[in-house]
Specification:
Length: 195
C-alpha cells in the first residue's frame, strides 16, 4: 500500500479516535476508546519505521503525528479534570470542541473523491465544525452499539441545515450551534444559541 493511502487511513483513524474521546468526555460513551488509540499508535509506529515516498509525504506524516500528540495531551488533561471533579464534563467538552474546531484544517488531498456528494451538499460545503459534530455523533451512536453503516455526512449536514431553517423561521435570525447528547438512553443532537 502506498504512502498516500496509508496517510489517509491514519488521518481517518486519528479523527475517529478524537470523535470517540469526545463522546467519552461528554458522557455519551462509558469508557475511553483505548483500542482505537492503540490502533493509531501502531499505525504511527509502523509508518515511522518505513521510508516515505516523497518529502511531501514526510511532511504530512509529521503534521499528522503532531496533531495526534496534541490530541493525546488534551485527552489526558480533560480526562484527569473529569476524574478529579475540578471541572464540569460539559464545560471541558465545550472547550475541547472549540479547540478542535480551531485546529487547522487537514492539508488538501491530491486525489479527487471517488463519488460526488449526495444531494445538494458537496464535499467542499462541509465545515470543520460539521465534520467534527458528525464524527462525535457517529462515535456516540457506535458506543451505544447502534449500526452506523447507512450514515452519510451529506445527509447529516442537510438535516442540520433543515433544522437551522426551522429555528430561523421560529426564532428569527439567531445563530445556533449543535451538540451531541445522550438523553433517556438515546443519542440526540441538541441546538443551542451561540454565545
Amino acid at each position: 500500500m502506498g504512502w498516500e493511502r496509508e496517510l489517509q487511513l491514519l488521518e481517518r483513524a486519528i479523527q475517529r479516535a478524537n470523535a470517540e474521546y469526545d463522546a467519552f468526555l461528554s458522557g455519551a460513551a462509558k469508557k475511553p476508546p483505548l483500542e482505537t488509540r492503540k490502533t493509531v499508535d501502531e499505525m504511527i509506529r509502523r509508518l515511522s519505521a518505513a521510508e516515505p515516498d516523497s518529502a511531501a509525504d514526510r511532511y504530512r506524516f509529521g503534521t499528522l503525528q503532531g496533531r495526534y500528540v496534541a490530541f493525546c495531551e488534551r485527552w489526558e488533561r480533560l480526562q484527569t479534570e473529569k476524574e478529579s471533579g475540578r471541572q464540569s464534563v460539559h464545560g471541558g467538552f465545550a472547550r475541547a470542541s472549540r479547540q478542535v474546531a480551531a485546529s487547522p484544517p487537514p492539508p488538501p488531498r491530491r486525489e479527487a473523491p471517488n463519488a460526488a456528494g449526495a444531494g445538494s451538499v458537496s464535499p467542499g460545503k462541509v465545515s470543520v465544525q460539521e465534520q467534527a459534530l458528525f464524527e462525535r455523533y457517529l462515535a456516540a451512536k457506535k458506543a451505544r452499539g447502534e449500526d452506523m453503516a447507512g450514515y452519510d455526512i451529506s445527509r447529516f449536514v442537510e438535516g442540520l441545515n433543515r433544522e437551522r431553517a426551522k429555528l430561523k423561521e421560529r426564532f428569527g435570525d439567531v445563530g445556533v450551534e449543535f451538540d451531541v447528547t445522550d438523553r433517556d438512553g438515546r443519542v440526540r443532537l441538541i441546538a443551542r444559541k451561540k454565545s
